[in-house]
């Protein structure tokens, strides 16, 4: 890289990056990459230097311009990979590698990154556990980019395992044909357009009111997964489970829903299952109970999730790869460009588990006919412009603090890939520094779907149980689909 001129250049940080640097909203991403082989450190560094380090955000320092106002800028610098790649000397035959890897990841949540170097580092653990032959943990400051940005740049660095010259394939949304325009009269078409417009305006108004109420006063019920103040500073525990993406698609196709609908329904069912077990032992006031109930869940529990929506247009991996090669960002393709929608979850035990999926679809369909997430994004930019990033961070913190958890689903490559010179087994992203005690991420990769949980150690001392409840809830839903005969002929293949 030509650092002589780049080192003198500074670029103002985006509103999203400024927000992530506020002391009350200082988020950091922990992305665990499981590999099929042990990591050759020299090859791994060579591949990092060949592509990722060329990315402007991964080769820039965060410079404080005005601490009181909360303004920052990016300044290009030379990257010393020896300061970014940490590879501890480990015993490959250790007794409990799963526990060691989980403890190591948890330990990374106890400190933030130094601003004396670009805001990322990589920890290479050459030890075999249940899911992979080695694990690499990327620790990345959230100001560098959001989850969609980061998974996109990772894929732009990767190549298909079956074809080392080709970029990975990522699923894209299919465009439905405009049957209304082709098959119906003008009057019906106008009626549908007007009705859709009215629905969008109504849903947007409701979402904006709900969002403002949550920021100001509307709090979730205190439960075994609802954190209090200061949770963003406490250590987190990270666990994951891997299920079959083909099984998820089977449910999706059988019920004519989206994968988002399926994983949201599974989340609601799994949390209901976990809280039910909790309330079998203690009531809502934490008092131990002796008389068991068939339905121990209290009525009218308010549990809501902050759901992350991507607002940027879909970028081609070829463009991202070219962006890194030219070492220059393309406007609109990078940064923290996401909207937040508050999703109410109904916590209840259902005799028919398919109710969770139907309810999730109805809720997501309603959110798709709303501009609430875009309005929230514009409002946050306005608050930041008028009052600075500290005030904007405080407002954002209140929204997350008054809800219970955060939910996201990120689409990964459709086939197995080679990333930084080694074949990848799975991807499990999470985050810390969050004003919530629970974060649930779903990440697809080839024929797998990874459920990744980040949980506060004190609030949720048994996150593996919650992970197991999510998996069991999905199995119940799949079994119900099969039992009810909803599988079509093509779904069985």
From TrEMBL:
Q: Per its record, what are the GO molecular function terms?
A: diacylglycerol O-acyltransferase activity; long-chain-alcohol O-fatty-acyltransferase activity
List the Pfam families.
Answer: WS_DGAT_C, WS_DGAT_cat
Q: Which residues cross the membrane?
A: 190-218, 333-350
The molecule here is called Diacylglycerol O-acyltransferase
| Major localization class | membrane
Alphabetical keyword list: Acyltransferase, Endoplasmic reticulum, Membrane, Transferase, Transmembrane, Transmembrane helix
Query: Looking at the record's lineage, which domain of life comes first?
Result: Eukaryota
The O-acyltransferase WSD1 C-terminal domain extends over 334-478
Please give the pathway this protein is involved in.
Answer: Lipid metabolism; Glycerolipid metabolism; triacylglycerol biosynthesis
- Which residue intervals define the domain O-acyltransferase WSD1-like N-terminal in the entry? 40-263
Q: Where in the cell is it found?
A: Cell membrane; Endoplasmic reticulum membrane
């Amino acid at each position: 890289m030509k650092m002589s001129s780049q080192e003198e250049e500074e670029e103002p940080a985006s509103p999203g990056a400024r927000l992530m640097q506020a002391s009350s909203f200082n988020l950091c991403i922990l992305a665990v990459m499981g590999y099929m082989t042990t990591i050759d450190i020299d090859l791994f560094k060579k591949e990092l230097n060949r592509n990722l380090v060329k990315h402007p955000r991964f080769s820039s320092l965060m410079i404080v311009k005005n601490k009181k106002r909360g303004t920052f800028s990016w300044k290009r610098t030379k990257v010393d990979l020896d300061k970014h790649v940490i590879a501890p000397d480990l015993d490959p035959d250790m007794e409990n590698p799963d526990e060691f890897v989980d403890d190591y990841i948890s330990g990374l949540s106890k400190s933030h990154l130094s601003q004396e170097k670009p805001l990322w580092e990589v920890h290479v653990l050459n030890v075999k556990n249940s899911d992979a032959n080695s694990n690499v943990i990327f620790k990345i400051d959230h100001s560098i980019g959001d989850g969609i940005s980061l998974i996109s740049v990772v894929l732009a660095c990767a190549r298909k395992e079956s074809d080392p010259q080709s970029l990975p394939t990522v699923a894209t949304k299919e465009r439905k044909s405009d049957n209304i325009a082709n098959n119906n009269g003008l009057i019906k078409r106008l009626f549908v357009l007007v009705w859709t417009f009215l629905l969008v305006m109504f849903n947007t108004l409701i979402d904006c009111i709900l969002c403002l109420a949550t920021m100001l006063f509307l709090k979730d019920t205190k439960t075994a997964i609802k954190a209090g103040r200061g949770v963003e500073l406490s250590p987190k525990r990270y666990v994951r489970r891997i299920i079959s993406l083909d099984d998820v698609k089977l449910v999706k196709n059988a019920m004519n829903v989206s994968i988002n609908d399926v994983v949201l329904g599974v989340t609601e069912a799994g949390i209901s299952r976990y809280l039910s077990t909790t309330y079998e032992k203690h009531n809502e006031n934490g008092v131990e109970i002796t008389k068991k109930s068939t339905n121990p869940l209290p009525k009218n529990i308010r549990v809501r999730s902050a759901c992350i929506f991507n607002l940027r247009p879909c970028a081609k991996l070829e463009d991202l790869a070219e962006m890194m090669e030219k070492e220059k960002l393309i406007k609109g393709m990078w940064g923290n460009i996401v909207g937040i929608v508050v999703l109410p979850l109904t916590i209840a035990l259902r005799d028919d588990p398919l109710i969770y999926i139907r309810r999730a679809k109805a809720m997501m369909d309603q959110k798709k006919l709303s501009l609430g997430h875009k309005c929230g994004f514009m409002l946050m930019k306005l608050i930041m412009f008028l009052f600075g990033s500290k005030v904007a961070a405080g407002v954002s913190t209140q929204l997350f603090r008054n809800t219970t958890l955060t939910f996201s689903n990120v689409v990964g490559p459709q086939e197995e890939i080679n990333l930084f010179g080694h074949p990848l087994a799975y991807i499990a992203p999470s985050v810390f520094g969050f004003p919530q005690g629970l974060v649930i991420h779903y990440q697809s990769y080839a024929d797998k779907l990874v459920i990744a949980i980040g949980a506060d150690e004190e609030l949720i001392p048994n996150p593996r149980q919650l992970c197991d409840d999510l998996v069991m809830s999905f199995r119940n839903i799949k079994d119900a689909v099969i039992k009810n005969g909803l599988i079509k002929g093509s779904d069985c293949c």
